[in-house]
Write a sequence for this structure.
C-alpha cells in the first residue's frame, strides 16, 4: 500500500488535501444540497415546536464486525437516540477523527455504509468535520454523530415517566451486539454466525405513535445493557422494576457464549433494541405493533413497574428466586460502541 | 496520583462509574433542566424557520495553552460556526473521548472552562456523551461539539454569495491561535505573552444583523487560515479575490515567529476572527460595528472581490508585487484545533 492509499495528516489540515478528501470521497457518498454548500454549518428548515437533539461518539474496536461496521453503528445509534425522544430524525452531523495511516478503502467502506444507513433511516447527513491525528494518537477511526429530529405535538416520553403497574416490553433478543463485537476481537473466534443487531428503530416508534399508543418511556439499552438502562429508569422515575427471567429473549448462542465467558447478558450492549414502558391497558397492542416491525419480531413483555423499593430493579429467576439487578459495576467490555 | 484521581475505562462503560462521573463532575458544571433529565437526547423548544446545524471535533495538542484550553476552544468553535451561518447559537452537545489515565482534575478544569464559555456565549449544553479508550488509543482528550441556532428571517449569508466589488473585512489580527499553540508545544518556548484568540463571535454577528447591514459572506478562518478560507469563498462564489498585504493586521511577535520558523501567517489558524464580505456601500459601517465589538478592535478592510480569474486569490504585496495565494498545500501545523 502506497502513501496515496492511506489517510495522511495533510487530509486533516484544512487545505488542498482536506478539500480533495471531501470532494472526492465524502461528498459523492453523502451528496445533498446542504453539504454541497460547504459552509461552516448547514441550514435546515424545521417547523416550530420541540426538537430532539442528541450526540454520541463511536470508538468501537474492531471497526468492522459481523453485520456492520463503525459507520452504520454511528448513524443508527443517533437515529435511535432521537427516536427514543419520541421524535422522527431528520438531520445528522458526522465528525470523523482519523488516525494517520487508515487505508482510504476502509474509510470509503465506512462512509458508504453510513450513507446507506442514513438513506434507510430517511435522515440527511448535512454537516461534518474531519480531523486527522498522528499514528498512535487515536485508534483507526472514531466517529461522532449528532442528530436533530422533530417531536410530534402531544408526545411526551422520558425516563422519568414510568408508573407503577406499567408493563415493560423489549423489542427483541438481548446482548447480540456486545457478543458479536467480542467474537470479532482478535483472539476470540467462536464458530458463529452471530451478528450485531444494529438497526434503526425510528420506524417502530413512528408506528407506535401513529397508532396513538400511550407510551411513558422509550430507551435503547446500549452500553451497560438492559440491566443498567432499567436502573436508570427506576431511578429517574422513582419506581421499582421487576423483570421475569423466563420472559427475556436471548439467542441460544448468545446465552452459550455468555455462560462460557462469564458475562451476564443483562449488561451486554444492544444496538437495535428498544425498551417501551407502557400502561397495562395498552401493552398488548404495543407488543403487536412492535412484533409487526421488521426489527421487532422477537419482542416480548419482560417485566413490570412496581411501587416498592423505588430505584431498584429485581429479577425473578426461572427457578422462582429473586435477585437484585444493580447497575453495571466496572467494565465488562470496553469499546463496545 | 492514585487511580481514583484519573479517568478509567469503567468511566466509559455506561454503568456505575459512568453515572458517578456524570453526576459528580459533569452535571454540576453544566447544570440545566435538559441535561438533568438524563434521557438519550435533549428536548429543545424552537420557533419555526431555518436552523443552523454544525459540528466540529477538537484534537488540539497540547490541551492547555496560553489563553485557553481544548474546552473553550470547542465551545467557541461551534458557537462561531453557527454564527457564521448568520444564526444565534442556542444549544450545544458535547461528546468526550477520553484516554484512560487522564487526571480528573484536568477533566474538571476543561469542563469548567466549557461551562464558562457556554455561559459567556449564552448557549446551553443540553446533551452529551462520554467514551473512554485504553491508554495509547487516543491522546488525553478529544472533544466534539455540535450546535444548533436560529437564522433570523431574511438573513442569507453563504460562502457562495460574494460578488465583484464587495469589500473583505477581517475582524482582527491573524495567526494568533496557531502561533500560540506552536509556542505551547514541547521544545518550542519563545519568550512570549502570545495568547490564543479563541473567542465567541456571535455577538459581533448579531450587532451587524441588528443594524441591518447587508452581508454576503461570513466565515471564520480557522484551520488552513485566511488564505485557505478565501480560496474556498473564491471557488464557492466563482469570483476573484485581491488582498492587500499592507492592510493585513498581524501582531509584531506573530510576524517575527512566522519569519523565524518559516510559516506564512496567511495559512495559520485563527479561532476568534471572522471574515465579512459586504457590498462596498456598507463596508464602512460594517467595519465600525465590528471595531466597536470587544473582539473586533483591530478589524480592517483587507481586500476586495473581483470578476477576473474566478476562483483565484491574489496578494498585492507591500512592495507592489502580486502573487497567487493558493490553498494550503500539506500540513503546516498538525492538531491546531
Amino acid at each position: 500500500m502506497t502513501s496515496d492509499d492511506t489517510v495522511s495528516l495533510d487530509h486533516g489540515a484544512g487545505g488542498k488535501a482536506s478539500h480533495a478528501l471531501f470532494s472526492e470521497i465524502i461528498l459523492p457518498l453523502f451528496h445533498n444540497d446542504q453539504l454541497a454548500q460547504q459552509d461552516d454549518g448547514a441550514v435546515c428548515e424545521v417547523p416550530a415546536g420541540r426538537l430532539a437533539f442528541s450526540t454520541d461518539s463511536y470508538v468501537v474496536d474492531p471497526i468492522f464486525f459481523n453485520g456492520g461496521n463503525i459507520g452504520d453503528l454511528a448513524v443508527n445509534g443517533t437515529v435511535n437516540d432521537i427516536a427514543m425522544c419520541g421524535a422522527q430524525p431528520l438531520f445528522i452531523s458526522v465528525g470523523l477523527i482519523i488516525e494517520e495511516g487508515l487505508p482510504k478503502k476502509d474509510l470509503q467502506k465506512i462512509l458508504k455504509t453510513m450513507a446507506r444507513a442514513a438513506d434507510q433511516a430517511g435522515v440527511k447527513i448535512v454537516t461534518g468535520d474531519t480531523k486527522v491525528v498522528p499514528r498512535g494518537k487515536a485508534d483507526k477511526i472514531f466517529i461522532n454523530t449528532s442528530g436533530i429530529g422533530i417531536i410530534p405535538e402531544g408526545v411526551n416520553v422520558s425516563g422519568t415517566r414510568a408508573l407503577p403497574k406499567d408493563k415493560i416490553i423489549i423489542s427483541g433478543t438481548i446482548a447480540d451486539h456486545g457478543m458479536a463485537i467480542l467474537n470479532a476481537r482478535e483472539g476470540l473466534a467462536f464458530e458463529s454466525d452471530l451478528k450485531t443487531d444494529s438497526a434503526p428503530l425510528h420506524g417502530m416508534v413512528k408506528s407506535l405513535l401513529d397508532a396513538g399508543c400511550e407510551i411513558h418511556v422509550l430507551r435503547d439499552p446500549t452500553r451497560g445493557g438492559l440491566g443498567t438502562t432499567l436502573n436508570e429508569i427506576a431511578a429517574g422515575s422513582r419506581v421499582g422494576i421487576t423483570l421475569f427471567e423466563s420472559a427475556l429473549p436471548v439467542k441460544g448462542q448468545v446465552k452459550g457464549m455468555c455462560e462460557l465467558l462469564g458475562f451476564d447478558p443483562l449488561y451486554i450492549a444492544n444496538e437495535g433494541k428498544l425498551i417501551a414502558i407502557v400502561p397495562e391497558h395498552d401493552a398488548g397492542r404495543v407488543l403487536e405493533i412492535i412484533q409487526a416491525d421488521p426489527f421487532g419480531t422477537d419482542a416480548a413483555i419482560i417485566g413490570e413497574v412496581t411501587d416498592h423499593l423505588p430505584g431498584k430493579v429485581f429479577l425473578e429467576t426461572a427457578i422462582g428466586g429473586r435477585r437484585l439487578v444493580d447497575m453495571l459495576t466496572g467494565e465488562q467490555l470496553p469499546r463496545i460502541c
Summary: Residues 107 and 141 of chain B are 8 Å apart (CA to CA). The first strand of chain B starts at residue 42 and ends at 46. Chain B touches chain A through 90 residues (CB under 8 Å). Chain B is about 30% helix and 25% strand.
